[in-house]
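FIELD: query
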Amino acid sequence: MKERLFSVLYMFVLALVFTSVVGAVNWVSRERIRLNQEIALQRIVLSVLDLLPPEAISKKEMQAIFRRRIRSLPFGDRTVYVAVAPEGDRVEGYAFPVSGPGFWGPIYGMVAVDAQVQKILGIAFYRHSETPGLGGRITEAWFREQFRGKPLHVPSPGRRFFYLKPAGTATGPDEVDAITGATETSRRLEAFLDQELKRIIPLLRQQRPTGNV
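FIELD: result
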């Protein structure tokens, strides 16, 4: 009887120890994942706002720039990141998340505009399920750089902010070269990006957040 009781208690203690260890590891990993995601988001925001120095910097240096230059504010159904001057006396731009359906799954991105909300400062697509080497090329610098400096003219009825044209044919201020062989990704990106811009750009122009500058 005692031996059986000892065996039960032993297994109970052993299970409790292992459960505690697994729980602790899970908590540490979850916190580490959260911090890594936070750092990745900060880097994306600084990148589209063109606030990262050209030389490589450490995570701590990058986080210091973010704390000094960025104010995170709720704005409608999303967060807007307000970029302020080094002196903190004026707004230099805004960054905001965008998302929509791609060909294989949702695409998540970040768009930055100037303080007057008149042109694109930068754009990034940082999470997606598009085909590597085809639709997945939306993350490549050559594709993203096409948007930099593009004017944000209010489209006339039935028009879009931007059109993705067959590679090598984009010439207008509202046109960018699409990715060869990724017709569906390009078509869906064009549609949801336009939808998102038509939601947020008018709001930013009407009530620009200042971040308490």
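FIELD: remark
The two ends are 75 Å apart (CA to CA).
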